Amino acid sequence: MTLLDVDGLSVRRDDDHELLRDLSFTLAPGERLGLIGESGSGKSLTALAVLGLLPAGLTAHGSVLLSGTQVVGAADRRLNRIRGRAVSAVFQEPLTALDPLMRIGGQIAGPIRRRRGLRGTALRAAVLTALDEVRLPERVAGAYPHEISGGQRQRAAIAMALACEPDLLIADEPTTALDVTVQAEVLGLLDGLVAEKGMALLFIGHDLAVVAGVTDRLIVLKDGSAVESGRTENIVREPRHAYTRSLVDSAWEFEAELDRMAP
Fold this sequence. Notes:
Blueprint: E1 4-13, E2 18-27, E3 32-36, H1 43-51, E4 58-66, E5 69-70, H2 76-80, E6 87-90, H3 94-97, H4 104-116, H5 120-133, H6 150-162, E7 168-172, H7 180-197, E8 200-205, H8 208-212, E9 217-222, E10 225-231, H9 232-237, H10 242-261
Parallel strand pairs: 3-8, 3-9, 6-7, 7-8
Antiparallel strand pairs: 1-2, 1-4, 4-5, 9-10
Helix pairs in contact: 4-5, 4-6, 6-7
């Protein structure tokens, strides 16, 4: 069974300039796929197209089937029925996903109430469970986004994304804005929760070491086109495309530099 089927996906501006060209891939339940590439490669556009959230001035072409629903050209009302249940997303900057005027507990409660119909004491208990799953203390429920750290905000955003128990989680550069130590903690948390809940994962990033650590397959994007795809371990060991080789070389150089810095 296929959870996500992307066939010939392109994204164009209103002036007909293509930003993403003829991308195709599938994702089965529980599978983990990474999209990797530099800024402007089309990886985040892919995520937005799958979610049906492309900004004004951009149009998707081709086919995106998510849990059997055609996303390209679908009305928002139809897409709202599958967002949260079939797919949720965590983005790079949690401040763009969190309402600055609402307490964290209330923001997590919203999707839980819609998905599971809980109210009152049962809803509050579910919110606290969601916070505990991402290793946040109970007091965070009463805090506003600006009152907690960047790492805590990202954990809260993950809790919101997982609250509806989606079949697919899209993680678009979820740790780029965090320092190295917090990044590792959040990656470990995300990896464990995805495994525990049996979700599929579409992980997007520019750092090969990060993406390879949480995915089974990779698609390498450059200038809006896929230049290489395959099993993560095969691409890391034997990259075929020159651009992929440069990503692998950079990752190994970074690892070597970390080893030299270690006490």
